[in-house]
């Protein structure tokens, strides 16, 4: 039997409409093609490490045609899946970067003045995963920037799907977060120039493991078209990130509620 992947829509990061792909066994041989759109409200930190939250409207878009797909978190991509549960996913996406002031469309806060902006960048991501059972998925993923040298982010995740019915899906995901030296110092480091402009002490962030991201998502389908989702997310930053002077809170939470329509 071919392993089919059902997508649970939810948002987990500021300023981005996110879709987290999970996997499940499907008794039908057909790929679940179609288009889903939606609108949601998100309560999340202004940036990773911020002590201030904001509420924002986020659009949700996802489309699939066999192995090809588009969604508003990952971008444009394709996935290859095998009968024994292994899959490969490759995407071309876009990251919005970070502003050094409050922003209405991407990460940023006033306390970052003098740190400079982190440019938006085109990126590519490669994920390899294994659906061990119909309720357990293991995945590793690397995200690399293409148009700006911001370093590489890695993550290893475990996803549990204890509830999977025709109307309801409950998914829990826990991901260990890693970054190379350039990535860590782009988002958590303070260079000499940044220190002089912002007043923050210099800080060199070590590469490697820097945090854990946990999410719990419930998706409910009212009928063949209308659905809703609720998502809660908790992120913990370890000392490599949390010791940065721009990190004001190492424990962060966010939440999303959204309504969706599938054509």
UniProtKB/TrEMBL annotation:
Question: Per the database entry, which stretches of residues form a coiled coil?
Answer: none
Compartment(s):
Cell outer membrane
- Protein's UniProt keywords contain Signal: yes
This protein's source sits in the domain of life called Bacteria
Major place of localization? membrane
Leader sequence segment? 1-25
Q: Which GO terms describe its cellular component?
A: cell outer membrane
Keyword set includes Cell inner membrane: no
What keywords appear on the UniProt entry? Cell outer membrane, Membrane, Signal
InterPro entries referenced in this protein's UniProt entry, alphabetically = MipA (IPR010583)
Question: What protein family does this chain belong to?
Answer: Belongs to the MipA/OmpV family.
Name listed for the protein in its UniProt record: Outer membrane scaffolding protein for murein synthesis, MipA/OmpV family
Source organism of this protein record: Kosakonia sacchari
């Amino acid at each position: 039997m071919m392993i089919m992947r059902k997508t649970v829509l939810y948002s987990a990061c500021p300023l981005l409409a996110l879709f987290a792909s999970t996997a499940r066994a499907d008794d039908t041989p057909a790929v679940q093609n179609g288009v889903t759109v939606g609108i949601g409200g998100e309560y999340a930190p202004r940036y990773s490490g911020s002590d201030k939250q904001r509420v924002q409207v986020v659009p949700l878009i996802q489309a699939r045609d066999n192995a090809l797909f588009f969604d508003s978190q990952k971008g444009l991509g394709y996935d290859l899946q095998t009968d024994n549960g292994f899959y490969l996913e490759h995407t071309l996406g876009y990251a919005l970067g970070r502003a050094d002031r409050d922003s209405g469309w991407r990460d940023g806060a006033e306390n970052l003045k003098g740190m400079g902006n982190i440019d938006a960048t085109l990126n590519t991501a490669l994920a390899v995963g294994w659906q061990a059972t119909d309720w357990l998925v293991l995945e590793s993923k690397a995200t690399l920037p293409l148009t700006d040298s911001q370093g590489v982010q890695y993550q290893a995740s475990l996803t549990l799907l204890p509830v999977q019915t025709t109307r309801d899906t409950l998914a829990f995901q826990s991901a260990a977060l890693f970054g190379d030296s350039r990535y860590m110092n782009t988002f958590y480091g303070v260079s000499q120039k940044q220190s002089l402009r912002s007043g923050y002490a210099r800080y060199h962030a070590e590469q490697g493991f820097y945090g854990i991201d946990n999410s719990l998502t419930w998706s409910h389908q009212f009928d063949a078209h209308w659905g809703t989702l609720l998502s809660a997310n908790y992120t913990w930053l370890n000392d490599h990130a949390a010791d940065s002077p721009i990190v004001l809170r190492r424990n962060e939470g966010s939440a999303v509620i959204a309504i969706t329509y599938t054509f």
